[in-house]
Amino acid sequence: MRIKTLIAGLAMTTALTVPGLAMARPITLTTTLKNYGGNGAYLALYVTDASGAYKGTLWVAGSKSKYYSHLSGWERASRGNVAGINGITGASVGAGRTLKVTVDLADALFDAGYKLHIDVAAEDMRDSPSEVVVPLTTAGAGRPMAGRSYIQTFTYGM
Amino acid sequence: MVRWIHKVLALTVVIPLMVLVISGSGLSVMPALDRAGSISRPADGISIAELAGRTAGITPGVEQIKRLPSGKVVAFYAGTDGPAAMVVVDPSSGEPVSTYAPSAFERWMTNLHRSFFLGDGGRMAAGAAAFALLVLTLSGLQMTARRMGGWARLLDRSRGSVMERLHADLGRLAMPGLIVSTLTALFLSLTTFGVIPDGQSQAPAFPTMAQGGPALPVDQIDALRGIDLSQLRELTFPNPADPTDFFRLTTAAGEGYVDPVSGALLAWQNHTVGRQIYEFIYRMHTGRGLWWVGVLLGLSALGVPVLGVTGTGLWWKRRRAHAPIAANVPAKTADTVVLVGSEGGSTWGFARTLHAALTAKGHTVHTVAMDSVARSYPAAKRMFLLTSTHGDGTAPASAGAFLERLDGIGAPPSFRFAVLGFGDRQFPQFCRFARDVDAALTQRGWTSLLPLETIDRQCPQEFARWGKSLSAVMGEDLVLAHVPERPRTHALTLIERIDYGTEVQAPTCVLRFALPGSSLLTRLAGRGWPQFSAGDLLAIVPPGDTLPRYYSLASSARDAFVEICVRKHPGGLCSGLLHGLRPGDRVEAFVKANPSFRPVQGRKPIILIGAGTGIGPLAGFIRANRGRRPLHLYFGGRDPASDFLYEREIQGWLDDRRLTSLSTVFSRVRGGGYVQDRLRADSDRLRTLIGAGAQVLVCGGRGMAAGVKEALTDLLVPTGLTPGLLKDEGRYLEDVY
């Protein structure tokens, strides 16, 4: 289990202007992986707007950038711009383990059609772009959901 | 130095190395198993479009199709649980064949093999261990070549105890595989840490949106129709929820996108040379797609644990044999210096005895090899130089640079010296090097404590006598009781004897002993009866005596008996003992290798020349000539009716062509002569044979050998060759007694 608090959070990596911290709130992202029987998984958590345009990256689990091409949805959305992820990367997540990250998200991101995506890939297994796609809503907070292949439950809580 | 590196490295990394090679050989069989279990062999003449169309037609919702290096085609489906959605597909029909589940055992083994389950730190350790194994392989190779007598002889038969041979043979056998494994491992390790680029170039940029429209059926997409299935690595279908998405295609040649509407290839990018090199090396290391490489590398790796065990055993044996000298005082403070010149190590045994005796009398003694002589010994009162002589009167191994180093020592020292030479009186250059050293020191004005003394064939009595003279000049009571170390002996039981020569006053008998049996355990420990070839020496130790007597072996291990040929000498202790043996009697004996007297490898003819018991090893060579190489024997005796040794066997060998020709000569018959006379009479033939590259092997008494050499010198004059020149090429060998 890992916990990381990002004060700046999305504000740093997105085109959205956030007037001040007063208008942001800490959100805890909890991702629990299935026992999929493979080596540690790489994950990318990122946000797109209603039209599907990339807005920014919240977290990347996995430190060797040469494997990022397997997170194809994220790489495609971000146009391979991995320069902006300094300070928001951590180790890969083992099967059956939980990744817990706390980030400060602007209030304006909620209930405005923004979606949170998670791409997952593990060595010698299938790549799973957009394993989870969940709209960011205040009502959806705390409601667990499952991914397609690797993610047992994903929850974002305020 | 090389030996030191080999030893220290091996002892340091033995445990991680065992983990690496055992897991590695376990993994090596996976590609072969995978291939054997693969129902869906790569089908010929199927395009990627056909495969994708069939697969998607039978089971809709395909997200990705991969062709594994084994040729297996795996399809991934959406909507179900991860691993369960992986299916092996029959490429010719597109039918699912079985669920694809990567082996958990293989994954576990892979992680153990590449990182010891320790993440990046473990990966570094595994890389370092691979490097260590490469150094061990190369240093081992170098040592083997040196032991065999040069790189050209690297593939010759190995010698020594079972353990030594096992170590050398297995090492040579595993060497190519280990070099490939370790070099590729190092490459992979360095790419993991980014030291070497792996050529995994940035993925091609996602193409800008194409014109929208209805997607083509996958089997009608041109870009996919043009590529054979065997080229496929990965095909990812467009996300059905995203109309702007493309196929993503990776083949053996490159990667890019395919427009599902137009069917065109977009943003294609060929693999870089770097990536192709990386993939080739990756395959060589893992055997993925090259199953037979995997099996070969795995077998080579399996040799490493055995090499580890035998190597440790050899190191332990060596360590015991070369134990450091007790109470060895530094050069600066020693009142007595003992310098040792030794080839095989026996002179060190005497030096140890001297060292211990002097130390017991309260002296501070410094004992080193002659090559380690210091420029000065400030506290020394006396120096002893104990040295053997190598070959034709040259310095032994530990004294090769001594005379040169002597020049570095300026004025004669204040202490006195005594030289003690070790050798064998049967050789003309008996103690030659000891005499040279004594002369060199005298010439430089050093003062002698005792005149030069010599010890014949490690005789303990002579050594003790020298100790008495030493006691007299030193005014102390030194007792030098040396018991020479000798190899473990085995009891040989006589099974047969044939007597010759009694009528001509040359009683000679051919003695055949049973091969002593030894258990596998004692053989592995190097304590069994060793391998031996004709021409090696059998050392017989008479009861109550410490000194062995040597006889040339007339048989090889393959003959399954031990045979020697012994002439009885008047008053000879050992030959008398042997001549008194009856079948069933036993003697204590061991084998001493004599690699300098044996036929060279190849098919060139060999001329064997022997007189009297000298025929022993030659008969052994003929008996071992199962390849029917041309052998020509010249034999000299006294009377064909009495001492024609091996007469009956020789007839048999001529019949089955192990022996090509026989020329005999006898001295006590009318018109008779010696073997050298027979050679002169055959001059033309011998010149032809030697001109054709024949090797000459001479065995017999000293006088006969000199006569043979003279005859050959004369008859070779027209060819410009001499026995000396032939000797330099290893084509003229003598075993003289």
What count of structural domains of chain A?
1
Radius of gyration of chain B: 37 Å
Work out the count of structural domains of chain B.
5
* Largest pleated sheet of chain A: 5 strands, mixed
The rough form of chain A would be described as: globular
| Secondary-structure content class of chain B | alpha/beta
Helical stretch tally of chain A: 2
CATH architecture grouping of chain A: Sandwich
Q: Which series of helices and strands of chain A comes N to C?
A: EHEEEHEEEEE
Q: Please estimate the helix content of chain A.
A: under 10%
- Give the low-pLDDT segments of chain A: 1-21
Mean pLDDT across every amino acid position of chain B: 87
CATH class of chain A: Mainly Beta
Anisotropy-based shape of chain B = elongated
Question: What kind of assembly state do the chains in view correspond to?
Answer: heterodimer
- Compute the number of strand runs of chain A: 9
- What is the CATH topology of chain A? Immunoglobulin-like
Arrangement of strands in the largest sheet of chain B: 4-3-2-1-5-6-7-8
Largest interface: A-B, 23 and 25 residues
Structure description:
The complex is a heterodimer of chains A (158) and B (737). Chain A has helices spanning 10-13, 72-77, and strands at 5-6, 24-33, 42-48, 54-61, 89-90, 98-106, 115-121, 127-135, 151-157. Chain A is mainly beta and 158 residues long. Chain A has a single domain (5-157), classed as Sandwich (Immunoglobulin-like), CATH 2.60.40. In chain A, the strands form 2 sheets. Chain A has a 5-stranded mixed sheet with strand order 5-4-3-7-8. In chain A, strands 1-6-2-9 form a 4-stranded mixed sheet, with no helix packed on it. Chain B is an alpha/beta fold and 737 residues long. In chain B, 38% of the residues lie in helices and 19% in strands. In chain B, the strands form 4 sheets. Chain B has an 8-stranded antiparallel sheet. In chain B, strands 9, 10, 11, 12, 13 and 14 form a 6-stranded parallel sheet that branches. Chain B starts with a helix and ends with a strand. At the A-B interface, α2 and β8 of A face α4 of B.
